[in-house]
Design goal:
By secondary structure, this protein is of the alpha+beta class. It has a single domain, classed as q2cbj1_9rhob like domain (Jelly Rolls), CATH 2.60.120. The chain is about 25% helix and about 20% strand. The protein is built from eight helices and 14 strands. The strands form three sheets. Strands 1, 2, 3, 6, 9, 11 and 14 form a seven-stranded antiparallel sheet that branches. The chain has a four-stranded antiparallel sheet with strand order 4-10-7-8, with no helix packed on it. It has a three-stranded antiparallel sheet with strand order 5-12-13, with no helix packed on it. Strand 12 and strand 13 form a beta hairpin. The longest helix has 18 residues. The protein is globular and about 50 Å long.
């Protein structure tokens, strides 16, 4: 997929530098975008400043500790490891989601009209040795057009010891993998696991403050956190075309804050506008 010069370098690419104390703003080069198209992922180094990392950790942990308990192997991965809508509970996460550097980066990849599709914490705290199997993020709620962007911002150094992400470069080229769940599986929040060639997998080890971005069709997984003295905390944000619809939900528009451009859907234009 070729992109125009206007999309590669939007005229207002730096119009959101409102939070430079916390975030490092940049844009992708042509080489970066070509690599993303080929491999399906990129790592953006030091997207959070030291102050931003500290503030993000503090606010996210305050929200986490208020709602989550110690790891319980009898609970689902989502119950143990997920906290949704963190932008409702953390101002720095909200500013990062709505006005941070990932917005313009998403615009370079997706197009001029962008909405936030998901904001959540995916934490594997020490003691959480539960893995999460191979899947596509678009398998957990299929969006169309198929250009949604997943972003994972590391709040800790992540490596093979504490449960870093593994992915298969280029696996996005196979497109949407159709999966089906029974109503019972949906009720139990069962994992959607697909087949993958483990020999092709590479670990995405990152330093705290880095961000990994990848295509919605990228095959990825994570192992358990076996580092007894370290957590693995990730801020998960997903962006989509402002007119993206939920294929699984009678093609209704995915509701999310409009963060750039416009949408044909009035409900998207109005969603969380008060925030």
């Amino acid at each position: 997929m070729k992109r125009s010069e206007k999309l590669l370098y939007p005229e207002n690419i730096f119009d959101m530098n409102k939070h430079e104390q916390y975030f490092n703003y940049s844009f992708l080069s042509k080489e970066d975008i070509n690599l993303f198209d080929e491999k399906g992922f990129l790592v953006i180094k030091k997207i959070l400043t030291p102050s931003g990392l500290t503030q993000m950790r503090e606010e996210c942990m305050k929200a986490w500790n208020a709602q989550k308990q110690a790891f319980d192997p009898s609970k689902s991965w989502l119950q143990n490891s997920l906290l949704v809508n963190i932008h409702h509970q953390s101002s720095v996460a909200r500013n990062y989601y709505f006005e941070g550097p990932l917005v313009d980066i998403a615009s370079q990849i997706i197009g001029p009209n962008i909405k936030g599709a998901t904001s959540q914490l995916t934490f594997k705290m020490r003691g959480n040795t539960k893995p999460f199997g191979w899947h596509q993020d678009n398998g957990y709620g299929e969006l169309e057009p198929y250009n949604a962007l997943t972003t994972l911002t590391a709040l800790d150094d992540t490596d093979r010891g504490n449960g870093c992400l593994w992915l298969i470069p280029g696996s996005h080229k196979q497109g949407q993998i159709k999966v089906k769940q029974t109503e019972e599986q949906k009720t139990k929040q069962a994992e959607i696991i697909v087949d993958a060639d483990e020999d092709l997998a590479v670990p995405m080890e990152m330093e705290a403050g880095d961000a990994l971005i990848f295509n919605c069709w990228m095959l990825h997984k994570s192992d358990g956190n076996y580092a007894g003295d370290r957590d693995r905390r990730i801020l998960f944000l997903r962006y989509a075309d402002a007119d993206a619809v939920e294929v699984y939900n009678n093609r209704k528009p995915r509701l999310g804050r409009l963060v750039k451009g416009s949408s044909i859907f009035e409900e998207v234009r109005a969603f969380e506008k008060e925030l």
